[in-house]
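User: Before I run my own analysis I want an independent prediction to cross-check against. Here's the chain; please return only the structure tokens and, at the end, one sentence I can use as a sanity check.
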Amino acid sequence: MTDPRVEKLASVLVHYSLELQRGQLVRIRGSALAAPQILALYRTALEAGAHPVVRAGIDGIEELYYRIASDDQLRYVSPLDRHEMETVDAEVSLLGAYNTRALTRVDPRRMRLRREATSDLSRRFMERAASGALRWCLTQAPTQADAQEAEMSLGEYEDFVYRAGRLDEDDPVSAWQRVAREQDGICDRLGRVRTLRIVAPDTDLTVSVEGRRWISAAGTHNFPDGEVFTGPVEDATQGTVRFTFPAIYGGREVSDVHVSFEGGRVVSAAAAKGEEFLRAMLDVDAGARVLGEFAFGLNYNIQQFTRNILFDEKIGGTLHMAFGAAYPETGGKNTSGLHWDMILDLRDSGAEVYADGEVVYRGGRFLT
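Assistant: Structure tokens:
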């Protein structure tokens, strides 16, 4: 029997997140493990009059590619990928891993080569999304591997995923519209701020957000969602930060990351585990050592770390920063083939955020 929450997910994504219209071309991507979610999305998109196409992956393709591909093949970008990037009106991608650690032993240099090669596609994706020409959403299909990473049974993980998306409520769309209104108020408040200073254990970091736009993420691009974000001024980040949780990228885990900034750029970076990989990714290109995103996680239905950035960056009471590419719609100008989110837990009672010198956030919540 199909889980009714899968049908709810498809309906919310098609009608609320993507707002699919008759005649639009929508690309649905995911692994074969996401078959129930893909089928529900495909049917709902057809019923909406759209033209869905499915790009389903199988286990082992990515590992095989990184093990065998030559440097020339790593640098090659298919014209078919470029064409689809310019053609689709909407895209929904479903996470759902066979093995979350499949790329752990890949040489960081090879991953860097690939990231450099596809940076133009990433830039074009962000440009089309910022202009409104492309609507996109990223979501999660619960799998055994992802449940194991989160230290849950599959049933527990399914409940966690769907509760985070408010799919256990009678009217999820109304719930997300309410979230959007609440977060719009926070964006209005932060939009009047010039500088933010974050003070937490081993952290004293100042970023400039003057002239930048704060955006409420309420289920239209990520699902589940629950954050407000902006693109910090590129040359103004100053100070140090020690990220609380392991940073996961391409299946690689880097833990206890310490970073120092001067004049907007990372000048030193260290980690207890994965330091070589961390430095390799920060050297992908000139923009990788600059913050492209600064955001507050506001989904208080998510309270535990799961080693999945789709959920972890939304943990209510945290903030996250992304090294690399900025979202142009925020006014951010940084470009890079990298966009790597790292999370700082502010739920500790001693953690505070100052806006232009005034405390506005303490112990994981904005002050009223």
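Sanity check: The longest helix spans residues 172-190.
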